[in-house]
Amino acid sequence: MTVPNIADYFPTIEQSTFEVGYFHRVKYMQIYNITKDSAMSSNNLEIFWTNRRDGLTMNFSFQSIFSPSTLNLPAKPGYISKFALGITEADISVTLTDFNGNRKLKFLIYVIIKPG
What we know:
Order of helices and strands: EEEEE
Distance between the termini: 36 Å
Structural class: mainly beta
Low-confidence stretches: none
Strand content: 35-45%
């Protein structure tokens, strides 16, 4: 029996959205908001560039697809009435750089997905 590479079973990012905005704290109003959508990144890397330097808010959202049928699991034993498989956690790395690629800030986001 050949043991598959575990990375082959990791879900990939199918759609991502990034929003950066500037909220003026004195005027108490949003000055601008930029949204970038991307679909089906080939290497799970998304790049967003803007010449704005005053962004205060950043929102990231990702959608992924996980298909348990690709795991080739054995048939469910009779003593197990129900089960569910899916994505339970995600690691996201964000790096902010200047135009020349010099790193200004890097942070990691660890997400635990709780079922419905």
